[in-house]
Amino acid sequence: MFKCGALEKRLYTTGEAAALLEVTPARVRQMVAREEIVSVKMGRDRFITAEAIAEAQKRKTKPGPTPKDDAQQKDGRESLKRKALARWEGEGGATAPAQKAAKRKGE
């Protein structure tokens, strides 16, 4: 808790803010550097206000694609299985090693 006269605000360290935002402290520092989140510097440390954390929580703070629902994930796995099977069958499947060995021997 930071007090300045009648003004009283809750300030969080980068580690505390990271835990609340479910990111790493390094990501919080990156967000501060990019001015995606407001911070206050006191001495050598940076502190983030509760309001800034609430705003960041409203926005998507984690990088990467949005998670797929279960049906989309299952379809994606099935598609990969079909592609792998087609590739395996296209190479001759289980007989491919025997065919390659026969070619080397000149049969």
CATH topology of the largest domain: Multidrug-efflux Transporter Regulator, Chain: A, Domain 2
CATH class of the largest domain: Mainly Alpha
Mean pLDDT: 77
Strand content range: 15-25%
Number of domains: 2
In helices, the fraction of residues equals 40-55%
Counted beta strands: 5
User: CA-to-CA gap between the ends?
Assistant: 84 Å
Give the number of helices.
5
Describe this structure in words.
- The protein is an alpha+beta fold and 107 residues long.
- The protein has 2 domains: 57 residues, Multidrug-efflux Transporter Regulator, Chain: A, Domain 2 (Orthogonal Bundle), CATH 1.10.1660; 31 residues.
- Helices cover 53% and strands 17% of the residues.
- It contains 5 helices and 5 strands; from the N terminus they run βββααββααα.
- The strands form 2 sheets. A 3-stranded antiparallel beta sheet has the order 3-5-4.
- Helix 1 crosses helix 2.
- The radius of gyration is 27 Å and the shape is elongated.
- The N and C termini lie far apart (84 Å).
- The model has no long low-confidence stretch (mean pLDDT 77).
